[in-house]
Write a structure and sequence with these properties.
Length: about 80
């Protein structure tokens, strides 16, 4: 699934770096089925695989079954990072 990094997120990260504020981190992922939000999960791990590629872990410990066709990743300051 291709991921599009949002311009607002890149600006937030650049501004944090330029002003000396702490960098934001990926905090949650929303699972969507079309225009319907299914659920939100906390991000429990992020690893850089190679430049430009990351591995994100979010675990759903429920027994729910659902179809997901869109993911939205948010930073810890609630800025949408990528879809």
């Amino acid at each position: 699934m291709p991921v599009i990094i949002e311009k607002n997120a890149l600006n937030a990260l650049k501004n944090a770096d330029a002003t000396g504020l702490k960098a934001s981190k990926l905090a949650k992922v929303e699972l969507w089925d079309g225009s319907r939000l299914i659920k939100e999960l906390p991000v429990v791990g992020v690893r850089v695989v190679e430049p430009g590629k990351i591995y994100v872990v979010a675990t759903d410990s429920s027994v729910d079954a659902y179809t997901v066709n869109k993911l939205k990743y948010y930073l810890d300051n609630d800025v949408l990072f990528a879809t």
